Amino acid sequence: MGIQDRTEKEYVTLIFTYGTLKRGFSNHILMQELMRTGDAAFKGTYLTVEKYPLVCGPYRVPFLLNMPGSGNRVMGELYAVSAQGLARLDELEGTTHGHYERLPILVLPAEKEDRDFGIGGEILSGCGGGVTCAEAYYAHRSYEKEMWRRNEGKGFVTYSEKEAKGYVKRKDRPQNLTFLDHIRIFVSSPSD
């Protein structure tokens, strides 16, 4: 099925990407493939409504931590994804292996970042008024707090070339350990 054969009504989920799935990074090849087959469509550059920690873990892999109110408002890209595309993304992100969890997140177009989306300092909790309900792949809750401690409570706004420097592709990592083993070693090691 080609791109012209798929209507936007078939997209089932909006996915907020913040790391290697973004344009210019190593896993974006999957997003390109999904867009070629009509299983994803780029919607634009978006920013989280709330602050979240965005950190790097082992091999400079990016992790968004589900700890609203900590960190920074995170810049990323929004994609509309079909059910088939979502299955491919879930597989890449290891949702059945405890690597990442796909959970809701509120985002807004980056060009609207200066608007006030709160009332009396409180963040609005629903969609509408420019706020979009999407989903993101967060670090699994089993290690997110340790990951935040390991990064000394410091995150960044965007995963850029600077943060990605030293990133090691999955195929180039030691194969005798699981990804969760790499995470456990990382969080138990001293900070740089």
What is this structure's SSE topology?
Elements: E1 11-17, H1 28-36, E2 40-52, E3 54-56, E4 62-64, E5 72-82, H2 83-93, E6 100-109, E7 118-119, E8 122-123, E9 132-139, H3 144-150, H4 161-164, H5 179-188
Parallel strand pairs: 1-9
Antiparallel strand pairs: 1-5, 2-5, 2-6, 3-4, 6-9, 7-8
Q: Supply Rg.
A: 17 Å
User: Average pLDDT across residues?
Assistant: 88
Shape: globular
Kindly report how far apart the N and C termini lie. Answer: 48 Å
> How many beta-strand elements?
9
Uncertain spans: 1-6, 115-124
Element pattern in H and E: EHEEEEHEEEEHHH
**Strands ordered across the widest β-sheet:** 1-5-2-6-9
Number of helices: 5
Beta-strand proportion: 25-35%
Characterise the protein shown here.
This protein is of the alpha+beta class. The protein is 21% helix and 31% strand. It is built from five helices and nine strands, in the order βαββββαββββααα. The strands form three sheets. Strands 1-5-2-6-9 form a five-stranded mixed barrel. A two-stranded antiparallel ribbon has the order 3-4. It has a two-stranded antiparallel sheet with strand order 7-8. Strand 3 and strand 4 form a beta hairpin. Helix 3 crosses helix 5. The longest helix is centred in the middle third of the chain and has 11 residues. The relative contact order is 0.21. The N terminus is likely disordered.
Descriptive keywords:
disordered N terminus; 192 residues; five-stranded mixed beta barrel; two-stranded antiparallel ribbon; single chain; alpha+beta; 5 helices
Describe, in short, the structure shown.
With 192 residues, the protein is α+β, with helices and mostly antiparallel strands.
